[in-house]
Amino acid sequence: MPPRGTRPTDKFDDDDYPAYTMGRAAEMLGTSPAFLRTLGENRLITPLRSDGGHRRYSRYQLRIAARARELVDQGTKIEDACRIVILEDQLEEAQRINEELRAERSPAPPSA
C-alpha cells in the first residue's frame, strides 16, 4: 500500500523515479547502452537497480545523459563531457544557494 497522502500517479510527476530500462533510455537518447554504461563508469549518473539487477534510469538522469551526449556529438571526449556536466551541475547548485542567501538577507519590502 502506498504511503498515506500519495497517489500512484505521483510517480509520473517524480523526476527521480527510475522508470526507464537501459534499452528504453538508450532509445530515447538515440545512443547505445554502452554509452549509458560509460556515463556510469565516469560517475556522471548512477542508475538504480531493479530487483532483478537491471539498470533503471530517471527522467533527471536522462536529461543529464542528454547533455553529455550533446557535448560528445560536438567532439568532446566522453570523459571530458562527464566532467563538464558535473561542473555545470555544481555551478547551478551554487548559484541557487547564492540566490536563496541573497533573498534571506534582503530587507522585506515596506508594507503599504
What does this structure look like?
Residues 19-87 form the HTH merR-type domain. This is MerR family transcriptional regulator. One of its GO terms (molecular function) is DNA binding. This protein has one domain (15-105): Multidrug-efflux Transporter Regulator, Chain: A, Domain 2, CATH 1.10.1660.10. It has 5 helices and 3 strands, in the order αβααββαα. The longest helix is centred in the last third of the chain and has 28 residues, at 78-105. The chain has helices spanning 10-13, 22-29, 33-41, 59-73, 78-105; strands spanning 20-21, 48-49, 55-57. Strand 2 and strand 3 (55-57) form a beta hairpin. Helix 4 packs across helix 5. A 3-stranded antiparallel beta sheet has the order 1-3-2. With 112 residues, it is mainly alpha-helical.
Features:
112 residues; mainly alpha; 3-stranded antiparallel β-sheet; 5 helices; MerR-type_HTH_dom; DNA binding; MerR family transcriptional regulator; DNA-bd_dom_put_sf
Topology readout:
Blueprint: H1 10-13, E1 20-21, H2 22-29, H3 33-41, E2 48-49, E3 55-57, H4 59-73, H5 78-105
GO biological process, one term: regulation of DNA-templated transcription
Pfam family, one: MerR_1
InterPro entries: DNA-bd_dom_put_sf (IPR009061), MerR-type_HTH_dom (IPR000551)
Shape descriptor reads extended
Integer tally of domains: 1
| Spatial strand arrangement across the major sheet | 1-3-2
Query: Could you state the order of secondary-structure elements as H and E?
Result: HEHHEEHH
Question: Helical percent range?
Answer: 55-70%
C-alpha-based Rg, rounded: 18 Å
CATH hierarchy class name = Mainly Alpha
Number of E strands: 3
CATH topology: Multidrug-efflux Transporter Regulator, Chain: A, Domain 2
Structural class: mainly alpha
Mean pLDDT, all residues: 88
Give a short account of the largest sheet.
3 strands, antiparallel
CATH architecture group name: Orthogonal Bundle
GO molecular function: DNA binding
Protein name: MerR family transcriptional regulator
GO biological process, one term: regulation of DNA-templated transcription
InterPro entries: DNA-bd_dom_put_sf, MerR-type_HTH_dom
